[in-house]
Amino acid sequence: MTAPTELEKTKLTLGFVALLDCAPLVVAREKGFFNKYGLSVVLSKESSWATIRDKVSFGILDGAQMLAPMPLAATLGLNGNKTPMVTALALSQNGTAITLGKELFLALSQHVTDWDNDETVGSQFKALIKSMGRKPVIATVYPYSNHHYQLRYWLKKHNISFADDVELVAIPPTKMLENLSNGLIDGYCVGEPWNSLALINQSGGLLTTGYRIWGTQIEKVLGVTAQWADENPLTHQALVRAIYEACEWLSQSENKDELIELLSLPPYLDRSANLIKGFTPPYSMEQRFFGNEVNLPGQQQGQFLLEQMQACGQLSDEQIDLFSISKQVFREDLYREWCTN
């Protein structure tokens, strides 16, 4: 792949949140993939997904690492300014988990011997929280996220009411472990490295993973506004191609140690990345960064996410063409044109 000529814009600012799956953006910058495509990119670490949403919506950021449901929610005007957005590249699959605080996990462990038996885990967890005398507080990163939907899906599967049995709150990913360690929350659903760090710090234990709940699912995407994409088509193409090549670099096992070194740089995850070096959690989170089945922003997956919004009451059940909305936002056509030819 070569850089498109006469880019409309060469200096870009992209937002990210300090998670392992910001890796495609970090690698694209640090390994020169952005430069290869004629782009000078500043990566801006943001404190929360709401900040990412607002800064992209108002043009402060050219684009960002986003939770897969975010561009759909923004396009529909859910939980913020209505701003049509698109994604032509998925950055990652999977990589999420539900972690319980140490006290709750130890109490559950007294009744669970086979953690692979989800029915037993769910029924014992339900019995445990019924005996607590209060609602356990469980955090997710953002209302429009796989984390929120996976947690609710798992609770509902085990007949645990998210209205009566638990209290759901939203906390930025980087604040999860601190709140768990201080006992301010009883558990969380978040992406890596924050589940592994809880295990390493002995602050909690793994309940289940997003992969166990849903199987393979798109997790993060590159999001830009539809207006930005229309005004900067060649720049958009160069941006997608550069990050796509970074994703390919990530798929090569010989680059694993160097990736940790890059993520450990102060502008990114800092020392948090080094802490998980060599650590293997008890259940694989199946996080992946490269392949057509990974990087394609699939319209069926987009429709599935819209259905989760409906199931949670975030999106009305009135007549609405979910597939058309997904097709508008999840641009399979651009991905196929730019990354598979």
UniProtKB/TrEMBL annotation:
It is found in: Endomembrane system. Its main location: membrane. Keywords: Cell inner membrane, Cell membrane, Membrane, Transport. The keyword Cell inner membrane applies. It comes from the Bacteria. It holds the Pfam family NMT1_2. SUPFAM superfamilies: Periplasmic binding protein-like II. GO terms for cellular component: endomembrane system. The keyword Transmembrane does not apply. Transmembrane segments: none annotated. PANTHER family: ALIPHATIC SULFONATES-BINDING PROTEIN-RELATED (PTHR30024), BLL4572 PROTEIN (PTHR30024:SF43). This is Nitrate transporter, putative. It comes from Neptuniibacter caesariensis.
